[in-house]
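Moderator note: this is an archived Q&A kept for reference. The question asked for a predicted structure of one protein chain; the sequence and the answer are reproduced below.
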Amino acid sequence: MQPLSEKLRQKLATLPTRPGVYLMHNAKGQVIYVGKAINLANRARSYFHASAQEHPKTRRLVAEIADLEWIITDSEVDALILEATLIKKYRPRFNVRLKDDKRYPYLKITAEDFPKVLITRRMERDGGRYFGPYTSTGALRETLDLLRRLFPYRTCDRNITGEDRRSCLYYDLKLCSGPCIGTVDRAEYRATLAQLARFMEGQTEKVVADLERQIAEASESLKFERAARLRDRLVALRQVMQHQKIITTAALNQDVIALARDNDNACVEVFFVRNGKLLGREYFVLEGVAYSDDEEMMAAFLQQFYANAAAIPPEILLPEQIAGAAVLEQWLRHKRGDAVYLTVPREGPGREMLELAATNATETLRALKAQWAMDKHRSETALSELQTALALPRSPVRMECYDISTTQGVEVVGSMVVFEHGVPKKSHYRRFKIRTVQGQDDFASMKEVLTRRFDRWRRVTGGELRGTRGSQAWAKLPDLLVVDGGKGQLGMALEVLDAFNLREQVPAIGLAKRHEEIFVPGRSRSIRLDPSAPALLLLRRIRDEAHRFAITYHRQRRRKRGLASQIDEIPGIGPVKRKALLKHLGSLNAIRKASEAELRQVPGISKVLAAVIRRHFAGEADEKQKLDTDFHGSHG
């Protein structure tokens, strides 16, 4: 055992005996491990006992611990919740973590009079219904295509009144039920979306019964077109049901979870059984699993997965018992609002399902490893080619690319994307709102972005910002700096590097879109690589990613600016009242639809001001109607 520092010894001596969470830091101030305990003093001190350090993971962890902090909670369940939050925030390398958990998509049914169905990457308390998380956006889009054929829903941003003169193309393609032109009313449209939700929950028999009832009612009312539409939907639904695997005749709702591992790689497979049918399956990759046993990995997965899951079933089947199961069940019960049981079946259908999930997990991990090996080889080839073509002193393991995005000098923003070993490192991506440049000046904007980036590097390495959130992104210098543009942008990059005395340490290039020319310092002529060369494909990829990241932020800024300006046009509304309106009603659309009585409930909105707001949006609607009438009159 290595001797403890006096600072760490004092921290250990003053630990409370209460429940809570402890965070272990290394000498750089980085959080390297987060743990929970019912007794903080006993748990944290146990790491430093000789017997505990017989475990390789504990020995490696303790060797790096330089400091310790803790947060007291009211209970062990509260500690579990806080632990999951902190692991997600800091992603400590000694913790088992869900890989890329921030990026998992969800399917969402919006909370509107005429709801939409869309893909989102964030669950919010906005009244919407969520399903997921899912691991594949592609597979989720296929699901959306199926849902739209079965339960036609709108995707437009129209203000639905049922009085529009014309529908969009999706109505003609039978991918929208046409609420905008009054083909279906609010009640009928929402009934369709309710069927969609039940379908996603596995309640297909209820959906079938509901459709059969609606067909009968439509026929009795002599609404034969509606009956025909519903009949076509029912036929399509029954075709889908034929492919759903029935697991058991009992209407069970379960998640079946199995784990596969191979050296330092681990994969978890989840089967979603709803109403006795296998509704779907997803796999999740775990990081930080070196020296971790299966029980620790499974407990970490349950904690992190169900912290973000849209739904929790009453029963979760596991291959083996795990420590702390009672606390996990208590936490899951609180989240679900009803009992949840972690069950380990030894025989019968449950055990068979676990074995099937384990087989799938093993096969998924094998396929992933093969893909990772192929990607690694491709990346190594590209990096080696880049080093040779650009005469770099070392392989460009860490590449940073910068881009500027604006529209005629409005809402100018910059982006920084990072690739390590040829793979995006999204936790190190950064975006910049340009502060010092007026109008459209890409050169000056690039100079500001790079100056702010390397100023952060100087402050982090100088200890000024060490240990702060996100400091790791600034602490490393790139092996290759790429700016989107030609000689002018490259010149600005070199000017900034000179200002920070980094010209010799950080190689820089400019990549121009036209002809994919590469500009390097000291050469009047550009370098052109073979269009199919892995090196150029990698440069294109990081350049395109920087462009995507920049333009996405630019569009967000423009939307926000447009929202603010539309509300600020209302007489008597300034920034404070605008913020109150948005906070209380949630969106511009909600403000537009709100009655005077609803507007008066907003803090700071008087009866007179509520009337002014209503008149403003009523006038806006009249103007829109006039424009629509003029358009259709001239194009009808």
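Archived answer notes: Residues 200 and 460 are 48 Å apart (CA to CA).
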